[in-house]
């Protein structure tokens, strides 16, 4: 009887341990993926644009935490010179960094740092290329008399940078999700088997045994 009672008391403990393990498996990926991710940028990573735009924008997956020193954006040209014009501003999930009006052609390097909605800082970097410089070059020889010719449309037009979608930060999360789903399924199967075994053992223990006094009667 002691062995049977001990076996029944161990089953609920094992079931509780299984449910705790399932909770830990579910909680760990949720806490690891809580940081906000960069959804898109303009100019986009690895893109080619004609001239440097007036501002650079970064769009994230959730509203960011703003504050002194919380958001920083550094943009430099191929020579390492900064082309930012003032501090970055945060509007919900969008970060806007003003840029200088005149900049050379070449590869540009963007480094950003923000504070996610969960309070954790996150940072990254990327590159884009400017094909045509927007620097103002003085004329080699001044004209003898002022001309009334209007500036050409090509010189006055400001090209618009097209925002392209940044690479999906969660591209590799599909395989991870399958692994966790299979783990949870296995844990649930074990839990169901334990409950079934526990109920079966209780039914077996509830069956009446041999009735007392069923043996040979004692001599008077």
From TrEMBL:
Residue stretches spanning the membrane: 177-199
Primary subcellular site in the record, as a coarse category: other
InterPro entries: CopC/D, CopC_dom, Cu-Rt/internalin_Ig-like, Ig_E-set
Gene Ontology MF terms in the entry: copper ion binding
Gene3D superfamilies assigned: 2.60.40.1220
Signal peptide: 1-34
Disordered, as annotated region: 133-171
Compartments, record wording: Cell envelope
Name of the protein described by the UniProt record: Copper resistance protein CopC
Organism expressing this protein natively: Microbacterium sp. A8/3-1
